[in-house]
Amino acid sequence: MHGSASAGDAYLPASGNGGYRVDHYDLNLDYRVATNRLTATATIRARALTGLDRFSLDLAGLTVEKVTVAGAPAAKIVHSARKLVITPATPLVAGEPFEVTVRYRGAPHPVRSHWGEVGWEELTDGVLVAGQPSGAPSWFPCNDHPRDKASFRIQLTCEAPYTVVSNGPVLAKSTRSGRTTWTFGVVEPMAPYLASVQIGRYRRHDIAAAPVAHSLFFPPALARQVAVDFARLGEMIAVFSAAFGPYPFPAYAVVVTDDELEIPLEAHGLGVFGRNHVDGLHGSDRLIAHELAHQWFGNSLTLTRWADIWLHEGFACYAEWIWAEASGGITAHASAVLHRAELDALPKNIVVGDPGPQDMFDDRVYKRGALALHAVRQAIGDEAFFTALRAYARTHRHGNVTPEHLLGCFSAAAGTAVADKIVARWVSAKALPQLKPDPPAPAH
């Protein structure tokens, strides 16, 4: 039987693969910053879901040198623009674990998508990896769909003057002949698009160990602005931990690149910002809150299908409003009223719960998703609302989620299914509902 060359997600039909599930990625990367040359070996431990006489991995723009399956050279490999199709010497047995090793090299570059170029990107002096939603294959072979989360070990060697930041804690670091090897480990299941490496001439500053260890990596010239803008990061983590439940990973790191970036981005345990996002005046507090909130909603709780992107972005947007209120700014209700008025002036021609691939990152998805949450909060009160959010984050920690999972938590906390109709109005229809004029009902 052949494994499908797609995960079957209508939003990214060319991404992901069928017939197996990945348990672990072990990436050994040797990279030359000056020439953008990568020599790498990926060892992937997986389990066959059915008998397989061939299967595929996502890999784009790099040259495959050798593939082995269960220690034996593959009988055949066919590498197209985005797919590496592997025929093992011996067919794989349903239910059995197997190991595939891919040796590859090349000059990594972003892959083209509906949403611009995504993946491995050269900076002026370093590297940024922005994998959402389909950029992971730009630097390692993978089953590129969020449903197939796995643990990772990422080892990268590059020139010693550079600092490497990746997912998970540093397991080892050693320097030899002017090159430093960094090894990182991620034990929590992680979606491939959230795997990342950031390379630059960064200074590291560890802010605090509580409520969770958090660190900053930044160009030395931006030290003053970064120190001001991220001074309240620990307080922000505490506010979100109270609202959503404990921070889901061992640590959080922020990287500020020396280049300007169009938008900040999140990765597992990381938030990445451009130099244009720091001003020493707290001008990006909203963005800092947004990327941090993705650690809960997106990175720990990861969508099951891309059509439900509002489960990531609606929550991250609502977290901005929660932080604004907690830090002495306008209330979450005032933010909701303001953004509903802005939405009212825009076309009402997308369904947030299924916006289509072209519009999945449209700002209306973010804001209407947040407004759906606020409307539920208004209806059931703070106590039931935040009890439900903490239950949602706890129950589905490091897993995949659907809107039904969230609605189930609202119903359990409120003792009523009122949230189902509210969310449907905001998320499943094009018309823009009204907000209740009053702030959320107080907790009882």
Describe this structure in words.
By secondary structure, the protein is α+β, with helices and mostly antiparallel strands. It is 25% helix and 31% strand. It is built from 8 helices and 23 strands. An 8-stranded mixed beta sheet has the order 5-4-8-2-1-12-15-14, with no helix packed on it. It has a 5-stranded mixed beta sheet with strand order 17-18-19-21-20, covered by helices on one side. Strand 17 and strand 18 form a beta hairpin. Helix 3 packs across helix 4, helix 6 packs across helix 7 and helix 7 runs antiparallel to helix 8. The longest helix has 33 residues. The model has no long low-confidence stretch (mean pLDDT 96).
Task: For this entry, give a set of tags.
444 residues, alpha+beta, globular, five-stranded mixed β-sheet, eight-stranded mixed β-sheet
The poorly predicted ranges are none
Q: Strand percentage, roughly?
A: 25-35%
Count of alpha/pi helices: 8
Roughly how much helix do the residues carry, as a percent range?
Answer: 25-40%
Major sheet details: 8 strands, mixed
**Could you tell me the number of beta strands?**
23
Shape: globular
Going across the biggest sheet, name each strand in turn: 5-4-8-2-1-12-15-14
From the helix content, strand content and strand pairing, which structural class follows?
Answer: alpha+beta
- Rounded to an integer in angstroms, the radius of gyration calculated over CA atoms is 22 Å
Instruction: Please give the alpha-carbon distance between the first and last residues.
Output: 58 Å
pLDDT average, as an integer? Answer: 96
